[in-house]
Design brief:
This protein has one domain. The protein is 65% helix and 4% strand. It is built from five helices and two strands, in the order αβαβααα. α4 runs parallel beside α5. The model has no long low-confidence stretch (mean pLDDT 89).
Length: 105
């Protein structure tokens, strides 16, 4: 199965749109990282249950909970995209890691 997670998640936060989705593997990690910046009241609503018995109810409850809130996350999602996931931020992190490796030799 092909997974579009990385691109979809990053495009979402880059546009200031709160991502929400199935809470599993890589997508779960991404939702956790973003949720940590948005607060304990919003983070759980971004995660949909994987259990087939609870999945539909989870989506309905969580989306309803998010739609009932003021979208305060827009600026923080965009800020996260720029500070952590932009090419400039990723390249700076890679450069730091490479310099650390070279210095250790």
């Amino acid at each position: 199965m092909a997974e579009a997670y990385p691109l979809v998640l990053l495009e979402s936060i880059s546009a200031g749109v709160l991502p929400a989705g199935s809470y599993f593997e890589g997508l779960g990690d991404g939702l956790d990282a973003i949720g940590a910046r948005l607060g304990a009241d919003i983070a759980p609503l971004m995660r949909f249950e994987m259990d087939t018995e609870k999945r539909v109810a989870s989506i309905a409850e969580n989306v309803s909970g998010l739609l009932g809130r003021e979208p305060v996350w827009k600026d923080e999602c965009r800020r996260l995209a720029v500070e952590v996931y932009s090419w400039k931020a990723v390249a700076a992190g890679m450069e730091k890691a490479y310099k650390g490796t070279l210095a250790a030799k």
